[in-house]
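Escalation from tier 1.

The customer reports that the assembly of three entities below gives different structure tokens on two consecutive runs. Tier 1 could not reproduce it. I'm attaching the input and our single run for tier 2 to review.
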Amino acid sequence: MAKKLYKGNEAVAEAAIQAGCRYFFGYPITPQNEIPEYMARRMPKVGGTFLQAESEVAAINMVYGAGGSGARVMTSSSSPGVSLKQEGISYIAGAEVPCVIVNMVRGGPGLGSIQPAQSDYFQATKGGGHGDYHLVVYAPGGIQEAVDLTMKAFDTADLYRMPVMILGDGMIGQMMEPAEIPEDYQPIVTDKSWATTGGGRRVINSLYIQPDELERVNLRLQKKYALIKEKETMYDEYLTEDAELIFAAYGTTARICQSAINMLRADGVKAGLIRPITLWPFPDAPFAAAAARDGVKKFLTVEMSCGQMIEDVKLSVGGRKEVAFYGRTGGMIPMPRDVYHYALSVMR
Amino acid sequence: MAVVFKKTSMLTDVPLHYCPGCTHGIIHRLVAESIEELGAADKAIGVAPVGCAVFAYNYFNCDMQEAAHGRAPAVATGIKRVNRDCVVFTYQGDGDLASIGTAEIVHAAARGENITVIFVNNGIYGMTGGQMAPTTLPGQVTTTSPYGRDTSHCGYPIGISELLSTLKAPSFIERVSVHDVKNVVNAKRAIKEAFRRQIDGKGFSLVEVLSTCPTNWGMNPLDALKWLEANMIPYYPLGNYKDRDKEAASK
Amino acid sequence: MAKLTFASEICKGCGLCVNACPKKLLELDKSRINKKGYNPVHITDQAACVACAACARMCPDCVITVER
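Tier 1 run:
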């Protein structure tokens, strides 16, 4: 199959459909509007359902109902809207309902801006809603990867019966790149006898009024999360083998860092990049391994935020090496040259 | 001997947790009987609310989902869109439906979502200990309106049946009561009709059932029935508020 | 000839059935306390019952089965 030029948001939407998603519930918010718009056009043609909800709150609860009925279902939004969804996400995690949630992150806090940002890292990876739960969070670094991870997200959600998030940003959502969306994707088939499809006595629920019972449920969830950490952690490395400076960056900023690394290498500075693809589970092993190498002098975390992922990088590095930070915020995007200059100052 | 009355098999054997004399139990029974009598037992999916009826998933003998506070109509929407041949219902109290869930109920009704909503209005938050509800009557004392509901401070009760009946899409909206046998029988008729509309694909149906809360009203169960009749019915008149079948017939 | 059967252990003694009986044949049995701690309902004159089931229709807990 030939590559086609796709806008990120539309690629994610079509990838979802190719992964068997037939229900989409959403609400307009910039910069992800192309996803619900695409779904509105496309779903009726594949026998699916697109419904524009009255709010992000309603949309995520429609996802809960549809996912609880065993369907492959998705919603998408951007930062302020994803804040509204947190209640539902917590219930979905508690009730162990599979679904996919896309967040094309924009600047915050509050109404913030409509430009790309990475300031929802804490929200996505540290719970967001109430309770002891996690989402698997995929952070695509380009349109092809957004396609691949969106399709994978549905399998992961079904396999572990949990909500999975695609954490992009306004850049990933809005930019265009060639990508290939497989049309012969075979979704994994899981047992969904737990789903409410009528005629049974099944209960989709997150209420356990007896504390010992809720503790048992939470400990079981933690076991599941440990298994996911073992099996599903994803990352990429770029020129780290001989690197003295290790960048840590994901998504859009990882691409910017790659350009900066090429500039640094041209100047003789041995720089490399560890790029988490799953933000949760966070790939701490490659960071720990790099921190243990004598040749590695420093780490530099680059984010479009005031410093969120850096906390996980520091935890992984474990105090063995210095972890510096460079960030832009509010919807500002760092230029490779800015990162390059900052890296030089760090290594001086 | 012939059985004149026995418990419907659409209710489980789990004893209800409701306080003595609380009319939730009657309403549960009417919903369950209606589903059974309409032959929908094998395709019913219910959505429980947050509030006193939060454990409804333990009682209705069918597939159930437990929703976040006020979100049951959105959850039911998701369920129904996937299971178009199933009979999907929500069971919600007044705090759940008429306060935190106003957006979800209004839009489910406006879409004509083909679900049935059982709305239990007892004018108070029961589960949390008797706080003021959006349906609390003017002057009524609750734990958060200890001097009586002051309408100059927090406005007037919301008439959900009146409000939703202004929408075009709903097929059937009726307000009933369960304060005596005659009204219980009538409530059953309305609830059954509401489910029938869904089964016939007519769209959104809602039955508002006036109900008691002896514990938080601070009355014995019999006085609570009398209080409902004397105080709630004048403010919340019983009757049909919307019937698209009749509207169509009269045109 | 009518017969009422009571699931006495789940009766909460609320008295809605007592009030509903048109022939005033039901009362809370003050001589008994069930596992829940309530005085359960009983019938005082089975022979006088006409099996109208008004009691059962008002019972919030489905305690009463009516046969005729």
